[in-house]
Amino acid sequence: MLCFRTTGNRRFLLFLAIFWRSKHQNPSLSSFAIQNPNADPNRGLFPPHPPPNPDSIPSTPFGQQNHSNVISSNRLITRHVRSGDLNSALRVFDGMAFKTTITWNSMLAGYSSRRGKINEARQLFDRIPEPDVFSYNIMLSCYLHNADVRSARLLFDQMPVKDTASWNTMISGFSQNGMMDQARQLFLVMPVRNNISWNAMISGYVESGDIHQAKQLFDAAPVKCVVASTAMITGFMKFGKIELAENYFEEMPTKNLVTWNAMIAGYVENCQAENGLKLFKRMVESEFRPNPSSLSSVLLACSNLSALSLGKQIHQLICKSPVSSNITAGTSLLSMYCKCGDLEDAWKLFLVMPQKDVVTWNAMISGYAQHGGGDKALYLYDKMKDEGTKPDWITFIAVLSACNHAGFVDLGIKYFNSMMRDYGVEARPDHYTCVVDLLGRAGKLVEAVDLIKKMPFKPHSAIFGTLLGACRIHKNLELAEFAARNLLSLDPDSAAGYVQLANVYAAMNRWDHVARVRRSMKDNNVIKTPGYSWIEVKSVVHEFRSSDRIHPELAFIHEKLNELERKMKFSGYVPDLEYALHDVGEEQKEQILLKHSEKLAIAYGLIRIPLGTPIRVFKNLRVCGDCHTATKYISAIEGREIIVRDTTRFHHFRQGECSCGDYW
After folding, report:
1. Alpha-carbon distance values, 385 to 375, 382, 388, 404 (Å)
2. How many Cβ atoms from other residues are within 10 Å of residue 462's Cβ?
3. What residues form DSSP beta bridges with 534?
């Protein structure tokens, strides 16, 4: 049961009411071809057969009884296979004195639906007395289901008779394995094409990243069916062509749930979470009931917007829907709570989830890692292994992050070395980035550079960005210039490279170098991403920039900040002018620091959020050192819990202390 009592405002309840007026649920459709163009899509691998010839049925009572027993046994085999009970199906099969080709095909379909049963399937196929085209198609599907494309092609070439489903199955197999040249060759010579043939080719080109070829085929297709149109929308979104995706979507006469999901997910992946939420609402109003895929996308949108209130409303919706026990929906909820700063509710949800897969464990481990609970994250990692779940490469990203944020350098190196040795998980660039960050934060900059040089693949820009950030913390100018030089050679448009290097120079009062870097940015048309913070109050998101002049309640915010500044200084706070990255006088630097975006958001939270409720602030850049120190003072002076999420992690401030232990 995924439900526990949630608090939150009543806004968006109309949305829930609209959802529950939904009268139907459109089934999810695969973007690839099913094997039989005439098959009932709910029947999976079980092919339809023509009714038996009456002349082939013995006219004696014994013959009629025997035929009746075969039909009932065939149905029983099919029922067992569909329920996943292959052993029971085999017992029925072995106990049959008389078997038809339908019997053999039903049993063969059972083996074909299971990965790793390819040898058993082939042995059974070779025993079929009179295999028909359905027998060959099922065996063909079995090879492709097990990624044995070569054997599938050999069988395809040996087939005495091929129907359209045979061609479609082979084309789909090539497409799903990225072998589009081979798929195209078959497509061009197949005798008869149907919608499934076109869909398989269009979807294959989209998956392989060739949106140009996909569009050419789509334009040439005699019928623009919903599957092909949805594949095109997915492709356009994948390549950031949002306007084209919108045009295709709006022009579609018929849309299914997969179409809506593709658009919503595309918006979220292209940093347009707000548009994704609007479309989700429109989808529900159109009486489409969300499935786990829909909910995963909309919850990710809530995470990206830090819209905790809306996320809780979605949670209520899930509790009342048929997907309340679905592991994907539960994991998406868990991730949303973690990313929105509500680790307590994330943990409650984790405890009541009836099933957990590796993705669920990864979400919870990563949640504790990002919130500074390194010990708890590593405890969960051990517990996951004890309960029989094998860690994957994402697990180790979470584990290394936990060690990174907690400063467990030696332990992190130990886990890194154990990945391949103990679990067969090959280190990826993301793992190396985590270890470089781990070493860099601990001041082991030379070791971090050595690791970069020993990487088995070419370093990517994020590696040098991470190293540059560590050089700023430890004021290592020589390595900062090395990191910036490599970062900008890989990504000349990286504003972070210029800004981080300028910040290193500024911290060392090298203002001539700061000016040179900023001039270089201007000459290369590189635009710095402005820093801003935001806070949600009564379901309304309030955004602040440093020295903000737009918010309608600025007068009250400045009054609160001035009051806090007096109290903080009385308690011992000294502004850290190193973080005022401007060549101005000390008094001006103090005023610049006082009006940093995170301080403005915190002050507004203190004014508008009632006592007893945590103040949650989010920032698009790393929180500055002075704001971190000031927030510790504010939490003690005001007696409030303040949670700040930046690009690196969550900081939980309580009673003058931060969960990061000043290590971030």
Report:
1. 16, 5, 5, 21
2. 19
3. 543, 618
Distance CA 97, CA 86 (A): 19
Give the dihedral sign, CA 382/383/387/390.
negative
> Facing residues of 644 across strands?
617, 651
Measuring CA to CA, which residue among 611, 608, 613, 617 is closest to residue 651?
617
For the chain, the first-to-last Cα distance in angstroms comes to: 36
Whole-structure pTM value:
0.76
Angle at the Cα of 233 (from 230 to 239), degrees rounded to 5?
145
Q: How far is CA 274 from CA 14, 15, 88, in A?
A: 18, 16, 50
Compute φ and ψ for 26, nearest 5 degrees: -80, 135
Handedness of CA 39, 40, 46, 48 (dihedral sign): negative
Reported as a single tens digit per residue, the pLDDT across 341-392 is 999 999 999 999 989 999 999 999 999 999 999 999 999 999 999 999 999 9
Mean pLDDT within 569-589? 86
Return the SS3 of 568: helix
CA distances to 320, 322, 446, 581 from 325, in Å: 10, 8, 49, 51
Q: For the beta carbon of residue 567, count every other beta carbon within 10 angstroms.
A: 15
CA distance 378 to 399: 7
Long-range contacts of 479-484 (CB under 8 A, 24+ apart): 479/445, 479/449, 480/504, 482/449
Structure tokens at 27: 């089934």
The pLDDT, as a whole number, for residue 3 is 55
Distance (Å, rounded) from C-alpha 335 to C-alpha 359? 10
Cα 157 to Cα 32, 37, 147, 162, 635: the distances in Å are: 22, 20, 17, 9, 73
Contact of 508 with 477, CB cutoff 8 Å: yes
pLDDT at position 584 over 80 = no
**Quick one: which H or E segment has residue 653?**
strand 650-654
Category of 501 on φ-ψ map: left (φ > 0), alpha (ψ -120 to 50) or beta: alpha
As to burial, measured by CB atoms within 10 angstroms (0-12 exposed, 13-18 middle, 19+ buried), residue 381 is buried
Q: In Å, how far from its chain's centre is CA 440?
A: 28
How far apart CA 214 and CA 169 sit, in angstroms, is: 19
Convert the pLDDT of each residue in 447-497 to its tens digit. Answer: 999 999 999 999 999 999 999 989 988 989 899 999 998 988 898 888 888
What's the rounded Cα separation, in Å, for the pair 637 and 198?
Answer: 67
- Neighbour tally for 420: CB within 10 Å: 11
Strands (E), 200-260: none
φ and ψ of 114, to 5 deg: -105, 125
Q: Helix H segments across 340-428?
A: 343-352, 358-370, 374-386, 393-406, 409-423
> Are 201 and 175 spatial neighbours (Cβ–Cβ below 8 Å)?
yes
Give the separation between CA 340 and CA 365, rounded to whole angstroms. 15
| 660: CB partners within 8 A, 6+ apart | 372, 405, 649, 651
What is d(CA 645, CA 304) in angstroms, rounded to the nearest whole number? 12
> Per DSSP, what are the bridge partners of residue 642?
615, 653
